[in-house]
Structure formats: structure tokens, C-alpha cells
Amino acid sequence: MGKTAEPQNISVLLDEKRRFPPPKGFQKSAWANDQSVYAEAAKDPEAYWARWASELTWTKPWKKVLEWKPPFAKWFVGGKLNASVNCLDRHVYASESDYSRRNKAAIIWEGEPGDTRVMTYWDLYRGVNKFANVLRKLKIKKGDRVAIYMPMVPEAAIACLASARIGAVHNVVFGGFSAESLSDRINDSKVKLVITADFGWRRGKPIALKQAVDDALKSTDCVENVVVVERNHGRGESPIQCHIEEGRDHWWHRLMDDAEAYAEPEEMDAEDMLFILYTSGTTGKPKGIVHTTGGYMTGVYATTKWVFDMKEDDVFWCTADIGWVTGHSYVIYGPLANGSTVFMYEGAPDWPEKNRFWKLIEKYGITIFYTAPTAIRAFMKWGTEWVDKADLSSLRLLGSVGEPINSEAWMWYHNHIGKGKCPIVDTWWQTETGAIMVTPLAGITTTKPGSATRAFPGISAEVLNEKGEVVKEGGGYIAITKPWPSMLRTIYGDEQRYIDTYWSKWGKGTYFPGDGVRRDKDGYFWFMGRVDDVMNVAGHRIGTMEVESALVDHKSVAEAAVVAKTHEIKGQAIYAFVTLKHGIEGTASLIDELKKHVATKIGAIARPEDIVFSADLPKTRSGKIMRRLLRDIAEGKALGDTTTLADPAVVENLRKQYESLEGS
Ligand code: WT7
Questions:
Q1: Cα of 366 to ligand 1 centre, how many Å?
Q2: Are 457 and 38 contacting, i.e. CB atoms less than 8 angstroms apart?
Q3: Which ligand 1 atom lies nearest to the CA of residue 541?
Q4: pLDDT of 99
Q5: Which one of 441, 467, 546, 632 is at 20 to 30 Å from 553 when CA atoms are compared?
Q6: Residue 254 confidence (pLDDT) above 50
């Protein structure tokens, strides 16, 4: 396990003695209220998942629950359904469900400047139907790819659901990614239409998304139309200029004005693609993770209901951006399939002041709050005075996702946000898994700070060692040993990479997620971080190779090696070791320029925290860069074995340089 990143101190973890049983009363009213749910699911996982699937609305029943030809799974074979119907139609027509939710709030939204909107299920239903007709009019049909590059506004959810309604495949690209990242993703999946906004607010500044789309489209030739949401439509003047290219670009509101009210949903096969979402891997090229309709909807529906114990009157706030899988599964599809009320916020947590989140929780009576450890650590640093002023008594359940949560952050979350009375669900999963995989169930699981506890019922997770032997207690790799409904189906356009990345470590039947984990004597999982060359910066996955390619793309750079270093708030931060081309001097202004270059190439989230210039990089005799040594240098650790190095002096020099930088 030499490569395992250690975001928290293992001995601290294993010494953790604190236990938090479900609060009194919680169990009685919880959906999952008895330990027997685990055994019941394990007895016959297919029957268990079929029970969940049957809570969705299907136009044709499936013939077979699972067809498993490792590593290719088909779930609910022959079944037909539509994701938007499951999120909308069945809630607005009483005949389709137990009762009508047509006047219930589906999305409560607040923009960063404080503007607000409430969309009932009926409003959302109408918006989605109309926009589905808009897409059809722009010649988008079943199977076509649509890119969504938007701020956190309700139209982002409408765009996804409308795409799903007509059977198009959405490819959401996080609005913080650069124009170049956007065009790469557009080209890889041959996108025909882009949906964007003129701008979105972030820390009081307008972020010009449409401008980035214009730049991106200079290096793509597959996009025929662009639909542009006017962020301030009906709310006064826009703070920025927005170019509209005749014949290609269209204002959203104009198209919607002319759209018909009802769009017949496309009948989708359970295995028809619902979306592609790109995520970083160990090469420079992001992977287009493919999710299909029936299994994905079943997974997100089930986990939303049981993990968050979602009830009719809950107001659920998942702080993730729609550009990440968490936004797909727990802002849109999971909660809306449950008929829940979702709260959505556009901007930054510290704008205009560091109490924005707490004011929002108080104002909207949020009952379930789901965020990332990196945010929690920032809140800790800002101090409790920001929290204490707000009334957080509406909260009843808290969630964490994206990276390991250290026990201090867990305790702070528990005491200061949950006021000691809200259960915390630390949920482990991935873009690839589609839905939550390892998590407490708030009504029945006794939690331990820092542990994601147990596999969700119906999910088979084990700790395996390198050889694939089961580790009952101790460290190893997390493995998923049986297929599950919301699993990825492939990597878009690269089946071989799908097989190689996920299903080759221990054979074709066992999924390799790439995380290090420890299992304690109670069988609880303690996630330790990635074991591959993937970093987790503020809960976002970034590949070391991606950043390295961005650096060597700069005219002054000869070679680059990137590693992650433990960071107090972000969990990990990016450190780059760079050798410059002959005759180029490593100045402070070049460091700034290179940081900026990476941000322009990939996006601000990939900007290195620090860059160290070096005449050489440590390499093995066969020429491989030894990242482990660089990590040790960045962490200030005693250096490991350097005997395999071609030139041990390189490391010593690097370390001296790094230390002088730290001291400066
Ligand atoms: C990677 C997946 C899944 C939503 C957001 C990230 C890390 C995620 C946890 C957790 C420890 C976690 C893993 C995983 N991760 N949740 N609760 N505890 N680590 O999705 O970008 O696909 O990243 O995030 O390392 O492999 P993603």
C-alpha cells in the first residue's frame, strides 16, 4: 500500500472511540428502521433491486432483472421508462401516483445576489415540456449529445430533464472548467447543441460562461446550435455583454415563448444512455462515464430515500454543483424521483459574508444538508461566530461526500451544525458508481467520526489486498464484488479503457474503484484516499497527468511532475515540480504565469498551489518519474528508498529548494 495517500493519521483513526447511535425517535420514523434490511437485500440482491425499481414508473415491465456478462451488465432488461416522467409527470398527475404533488415546491432557488425563485412540480413540469419541444425544434433527437455549461440556476435542471425527456444524452460540463476543457468534452462526445447562460454570479463577479462557449466552439465543428439563458432575464440589466451569433445562438426565453406546452416523452429502454459525465483518470484524457436510464434511476431513487431518509416535507440541500455527479444524482434525479423539495443556491458560501449558508438554512428551513469535508473545514477555520448567529433548528440530518472526512471536521459538523442532534451520513461513492455505495443509514447505524461505515443494502463491498484476497480487518483496496444497478456501463468511445481501468485488477467480475480503505473489527470502512495518480482537491478529482500536460504545453517548460500534498482545507493541494527549457530562468513571475496557464487550460480548480523549479526530476534508471519521492519532499517527510534512482543527488537538491521555498 505504498502509494496510498493518507489524508488522516491512521493511528488516530483506529483509536477513535466515540460512538453515535441513531438519535432517539429517529429510528422509529426512518424508512430504513431495522437491521434486517441488510440481510434481506443480501439474501437475493436482484429481487431487492427489482423491488426498488418497481417503485418507479415504467411503461413496459422488464423481462429479466440482470444480465451479467462480466464486465458488462444490463439491468431491467426489456423495461421501458423515461427519467423525466419519473421526476415530474408522476408527481403532477394524481392517477399515476398515491397523490398529487403538483403544487409542491420542486426547486427553491436563491441566486448569489439574493434573487429568489420557487418552482412547483407543475412549473418544472411545464418548463421541461416546453424546453423538450425547443430541443426537438432544434433537431435534437434520441441519442444525440447535448452539452450543458451553466451556472446553478433552475434552467440547468430543466435542461437536463428536457434532454432526458426526448432521449437525448446530456453531457454536463462544470462551469468552472476552461473553454479548452469544454471543447475537449464537446469533441469527444460529438455534441450537437450547447446550453449555456450569458453569465453566473460567483463572489460578486459575473462569470462569462457564454464567452467561454464562444472560445470553445472555435475548436469544434460538431455543434449546430447554442441556447443561451439570460441570467438576469426580467431582473434588470446584465452586467456583461453577450455576443449572439446569428443563426447559431438563440436566447432561451425567446425559444420558450414559442414552445408548445406538452412534449410526448420518448420511451427509453432501461439500458438507453441517460448521460455522459467526464471525470479525471490517470492519463491526461478525462473519461466519459456512461450512465443508462433504468439502473441509474433505481440507484439514485433508492439511496435518496434511505440514506437521506427523505420524507414528504423535507427541504433537501445538496450543495454540489450540477457539473459533478453529486449534482446529477442528488440535486436532480434522486430527489425529484422521490417528489422531494430541493433547494438550490447559485453562489459562494462566503458571499457577501461567511454566514451565507447558515442564513439560507434558516431562511428556507432546510432539513437535510449535504456538503463536502473541504467546505466543513473552511467553516471551521472561519469560526463558530458565523454559525452561532443563525437558527439551524430546522436541520435533522447531515451528509458528507467527496473525500475522507477527518474526525475533527466530523465532530465540528456534529456539534456546531447538527447541534449534537442530527445524524451524519458520510457517503462514499464515485462518478462511476452513479449512486451512494458505502454509508450509514441514519435510523439504524451507529456512526464513528471519520468512517463511512457499511455498504448500502444490496451493494457488495469488500476490502481486498493486491492479490485479491479478502481482508476481514486491516488495510487494502475497496472492491465491489457484484454488479449494481447504477454502475457505469462503459467509457464513452473507449470500451477497452473501461475494461482496463475498472475490471482488470482482480478479474472481470470485480470492480476496482481505486481507493485505499481500512476495515475495523466491526466491519466498518475507513476510506484513506486514492491509490492511483488521481488527486482530490477540495472534493474534486484531478489527474496528475492532466496538470502535467497543461504545464508542458507552456513554451518555457521542458518537463513537469505533479503530486498532491495534504492541505488543511482542500484536503489535497497540487504541487508541481518543473524543469525549464535551456536558458530559461525560473523567476517568481514565471511561477505566476505557469499557474495561470494551468487555470486557463483546465480551470481554476487545477491551479497549482506551488511550483518548484528543478534542473532535473528524480527518475528511475528506466526513466520513470518517481512521484513517491516527490510526494515525500512535498510532505516534508523523511525520504524513502532512493537506491533505484538514476541520480540520488537530484532529490537532495530538490528538497533543499523546496525547503527554502517553504521558509520564504
Ligand atoms: C472519489 C470519487 C461521489 C461524489 C463526489 C466525488 C472520493 C468520495 C468519499 C467519502 C472518502 C470519498 C474517493 C472516490 N470520495 N466520497 N465519503 N470518503 N472518499 O466524485 O469526482 O467521482 O470522485 O472521491 O476517492 O474515488 P468523483
A1: 24
A2: yes
A3: 21
A4: 61
A5: 632
A6: yes
